[in-house]
């Protein structure tokens, strides 16, 4: 028996949502793939997780991880009661690097993982900015800033992304991101070595992170400085550039320990991220701003400075993104029926499980 919940569709069609209908939310990032399935009251009935699902870098493995996480979620929280794929009526999936899904050969791999799990509804793929915003607030309008390995910002109207700033990638932008912090930390070390100056606590931490097996006694000699510079340059250039983002943790730790060079980098990162937000917002905007990503987190010194800077420059609440897959699942409820996108369901879905 269908629930008497009419769902308006395009061209005036009215569809009744069947009893027992479910929705699916997904959060596909560079390091993890997460899927949640929920009922119409916002209760999660299935969860799945796998390795990275970003389709840009490794589409085949990303699609495989996507399929694995779906299968895990369909198994249900209670093994005695698996989820019926036919009851999943809407799906919203946030994807980092989602533009790769516009390539037919990549989309085909994701479609195969989807249909192979027995799912029949059409998945809606959206960007990670929309998912991050929805995870932080049930508001329809506002802005969102993600600062992790990369950085980008978005303006949201009626739960949809209408404009973006930065997100240009490590070569062209991502100002203030983890990659930016790592690159600038390395540049500060190389600059000191060029000048024959002490590299300081941050520089020593960078050297230990990049060259963990190096004999540090060589650093004390002038020729040791030359060798150190060459070793750093050779090692960094032999690895994928994005791995410089791993040095962001080194910068944050040094900043918290009182290193002046690290603090200067953290302060500049916060300024750049505030400028990115400023490309989208004006001083009269009063919608919430949701901050997401490890660099913008509340425990990060960059995150703390961003929050203060944002409050100094813009009106509106500054909120922290919560469970991304929960935000996507809440959006899926709203796609099925706007009335289901309630504040209560939002709280239930974005609060991580104990």
TrEMBL record:
Residue intervals of the ATPase BadF/BadG/BcrA/BcrD type domain: 24-312
- Name of the protein: ATPase BadF/BadG/BcrA/BcrD type
What the entry lists under Pfam families is as follows: BcrAD_BadFG
Write down the superkingdom of origin.
Bacteria
């Amino acid at each position: 028996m269908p629930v008497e919940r009419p769902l308006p569709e395009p061209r005036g069609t009215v569809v009744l949502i069947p009893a027992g209908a479910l929705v699916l939310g997904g959060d596909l990032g560079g390091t993890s793939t997460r899927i949640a399935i929920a009922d119409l009251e916002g209760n999660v009935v299935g969860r799945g997780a796998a390795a990275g699902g970003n389709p840009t870098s490794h589409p085949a493995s990303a699609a495989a991880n996507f399929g694995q996480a779906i299968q895990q979620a369909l198994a249900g929280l209670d093994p005695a009661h698996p989820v019926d794929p036919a009851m999943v009526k809407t799906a919203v999936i946030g994807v980092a690097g989602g533009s790769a899904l516009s390539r037919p050969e990549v989309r085909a791999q994701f479609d195969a993982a989807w249909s192979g799990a027995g799912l029949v509804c059409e998945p809606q793929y959206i960007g990670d900015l929309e998912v991050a915003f929805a995870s932080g607030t049930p508001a329809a309008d506002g802005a969102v800033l993600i600062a992790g390995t990369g950085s980008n910002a978005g303006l949201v109207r009626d739960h949809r992304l209408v404009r973006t700033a930065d997100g240009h990638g490590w070569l062209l932008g991502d100002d203030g991101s983890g990659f930016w912090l790592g690159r600038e930390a390395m540049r500060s070390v190389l600059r000191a070595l060029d000048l024959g100056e002490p590299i300081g606590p941050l520089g020593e931490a960078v050297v230990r992170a990049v060259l963990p097996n190096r004999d540090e006694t060589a650093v004390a000699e002038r020729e040791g400085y030359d060798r150190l510079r060459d070793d750093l340059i050779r090692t960094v250039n032999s690895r994928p550039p994005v791995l410089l983002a791993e040095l962001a943790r080194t910068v944050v730790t040094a900043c918290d320990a009182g290193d002046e060079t690290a603090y200067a980098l953290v302060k500049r990162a916060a300024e750049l991220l505030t400028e990115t937000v400023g490309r989208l917002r004006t001083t009269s905007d009063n919608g919430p701003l949701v901050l997401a990503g490890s660099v913008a987190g509340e425990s990060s010194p960059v995150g703390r400075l961003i929050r203060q800077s944002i409050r100094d420059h813009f009106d509106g609440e500054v909120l922290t993104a919560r469970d991304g897959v929960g935000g996507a699942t809440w959006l899926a409820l709203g796609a099925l029926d706007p009335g289901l996108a309630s504040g209560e369901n939002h709280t239930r879905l974005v609060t991580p499980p104990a």
